[in-house]
Amino acid sequence: EAKDSGRNTSVFFDADLEARLNSRLELQRDLHRGIINNELELFYQTKVNCQKTCVGVEALVRWFHPTKGMINPANFIYIAEQSGDIILLGNWVLRTACEKLLEWADHPERADWTMSVNVSVKQLKADNFVEEVSRCLNETGAPPNKLILEITESMLLGNTEAVIVKMQQLRNIGVRFALDDFGTGYSNLSYLQRLPLDQLKIDRSFVSTNTDHENSGLAQAQLTQSIISLGHTLGLIVVAEGVETEAQFHALIKQGCDIFQGYYFNRPVREGELP
Ligand code: C2E
Ligand code: MG
Ligand code: MG
Ligand code: MG
Hints:
By secondary structure, this protein is of the alpha/beta class. Helices cover 47% and strands 19% of the residues. The chain is built from 10 helices and 9 strands. Strands 1, 2, 3, 4, 5, 6, 7, 8 and 9 form a 9-stranded mixed β-sheet that branches. Helix 3 (86-104) packs parallel to helix 5 (129-140), helix 5 (129-140) packs parallel to helix 6 and helix 8 (204-210) crosses helix 9 (217-233). The model has no long low-confidence stretch (mean pLDDT 92). The structure holds ligand C2E and magnesium ion (3 copies). Residues 58, 118, 150, 180 line the site of one magnesium ion. This is GGDEF domain-containing protein. Keywords: Membrane, Transmembrane, Transmembrane helix.
């Protein structure tokens, strides 16, 4: 009896697994075709200073699937990373963002805006990453000092030295770097000091608990304060992501945060809907 039901469970499980594998494979094929067929689109979310003046945007990719509609990056970036299409996707994002930067160079309000682009670990670790980025800048004619590449702590695992060399090479041509989602991953503070970074982006989880009225609120606020101070000690611009309320914005200003991003100011939108 027990054996039977065990086998049934496992057959059922296998069928379920197979279905999920098939839909994953289908999505993977769709994505490959989608990248080539121009189904990707860049949305932009503003980053503001404490006067709420826009100082730049972050490019956030969206996929408009022909039947499934808009898909968020959380649901397809990992697929692209597994299939290897992340290089194709990442290059498309870089190029599109650089083209936009060039367009904005003559714009009355946007000429000073920076463009932040998320980079995947596979892109960063590819041998020709530096060439890809510089080629993109050269071919589009975008100003390199307006481009900010966002990397995450987990990308520094393993071969950190090689990553530092690449970052320095890109920095030499003017490109800047931000450490994204800071505080959620593996933090080796001695590496942090050696990375040629310009910005530290505090993860939104700290921003949302910073103003909690629970008992933990005070400790959380001190934690956020410490991260901001750490960033400043390292000479970095501190950016808060995921700012959703006025209270969060004001608390972060008091704590010395430099730049703010979140739904409180703007959602990620198409270029035409930017302020
Ligand atoms: P991220 O780089 O940390 O981007 C911030 C995410 O938080 C974005 O989600 C943004 O829409 C969302 N967000 C912004 N403000 C708020 C807020 O006030 N509240 C809340 N709850 N969320 C907010 P999105 O666009 O879905 O992107 C998710 C992640 O996907 C990004 O996290 C980034 O890691 C990755 N991603 C996006 N575009 C690209 C890309 O072009 N290439 C790569 N490799 N990854 C990308
Ligand atoms: Mg980011
Ligand atoms: Mg982030
Ligand atoms: Mg985040």
